[in-house]
Here is the input.
Amino acid sequence: MTRARLAELALVGIAAVWGLTFVMVQDAIEHLPVTAFLAYRFIPAALLVGFVARRDLRSLSPAGWRAGLIMGVFLTAGYLFQTLGLQHTTASNAGFITGLFVVLTPLLGAAVLGQRAGRIAWLAAGASTVGLFLLSGAGADFRAAGDGLVLLCAIAFSAHILATDRGVAAHPIGALVAVQLGVCGVVCLLIAAATGDLEVPRGGEVWSALVVTALVASALGFLVQTYAQRHASPARTALILASEPAFAGLFGYLLAGDRLGPVEWLGAAVILAAIVAVDAVPRLRPTRPLPEG
Here is the structure.
């Protein structure tokens, strides 16, 4: 088996894990405050990645630290919005809406950095808007405190991708991953401490979610992503990772009892089609995506 094929299979596995975490996190935050959960998730992940990339981390330049901090700010915002949104929407909805970061990235790059988005990217954005409308029951079941927060999460992840594209061009990826995960963990820890939300994790659901999200979804997931992009094309990598919302919908159906009606399924299909349309055309991707799950 070639390294490229091994990398692709590993990416499919990580996309499945990221889809599964929507359900696991939704269950865990019923018993543990959001900021405490995120702190306990990302601090161990940062320490593990930092240990693996310790040589690059020790030699990281001040400019590299600044790049990692900026990436960490957007990553923190994305996960806060996503996890808070999961308190008020289904795992399936959160997965499909989060996947919109693939469509939003070229548009944000065009608006902020002057990058050319292309006609298909704009059409995909319009289709995604229609899909989101249908997914919310043709507007009848749109929850601003849930779906709206997850939409903000997708925007934050888009900004994170653009920041990452600039960071990895000049600095070692492992060190950048460790820094950004550390920023996310420390910021959430400080918020939890300031709001009195620091609690000791209790219960099998919480601990299993922490283990899977910290060690597999965050630490291993980002390392696999880095390895895969060294051996598979960016377009192929992005196309495989576009399966994450589908996995989220599948696990939401199997484990959380999420049930979508015909209109909602049509909306989910439109969103997935828009994601794949953008991913399948390499020239429409001005940046290399670093997926969020």
Remarks:
- Confidence is low (pLDDT under 50) at residues 282-286.
